[in-house]
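Changelog note: in this version the structure field was regenerated for every chain. One regenerated record is shown below for reference.
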Amino acid sequence: MAMDQIYHIKCFTCHQCAINLQGKLFYALDGNPFCEDYLSILEKCCVCQKPILDRILRATDKPYPGCFCCVVCGKSLEGIPFTVDATNRVHCIEGFHKIFAPRCWVCKQPIIPEPGEEETVRVVALDDSFHIRCYICEDCGLVLSSEAECRGCYPLDGYVLCKTCNAKRVQALSTEL
C-alpha cells in the first residue's frame, strides 16, 4: 500500500520511467509515484536550484515555485507589482526604490512616490537631487521654486540660496575684500 492506494508489486512503478518502486524511495506527485531519478529531469527553481514539485510561477522567463521574493526585503512577489534591476534580480517596488531611487541631498532619504502615488517630482540643482520640501534656501529656509517670482535658486560657492541671501553673501564677500 502506498499513497493510500493498493498496488500489485509489479504495478508499483514510476509514472515516468516505469521502474519498479518496491522497496525504493519514491515521490508522489499528483497522486502518481515517481522514482528519485525523476527529480533530475524536473525544472529547477532559478533561485534555490531545487526541483519544482508544485505549481510554477513564471516571471522574467524564469521558473519560481515559492522563491519568487524581493531580493531586498524577502517579501513574496506573487500577485503584486514587481520590477527587475539591470542584472534581472526581482524587487518589490518599495525595495527597488530603497536601493535605486535618487537620494535627497538635504535629508538623505530616497526620493520616491508618496503612498498611493505612482510618480514623484524631484528637483535637480547643482548636480544634486532634492525633495521639493527640502529644496530651501540654506540661510533663511525659504522654499525655493523656479515658478515663483524671486524664489528661484541663486547658488553661491556650492550653497543653495534664495535671491536675497545670495545678495547678502555677495555683499559680505565684497566688503571683506
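Spot check on this record: The beta strands are 26-29, 32-35, 57-59, 62-64, 82-84, 90-92, 123-125, 128-130. The chain has a mean pLDDT of 82.
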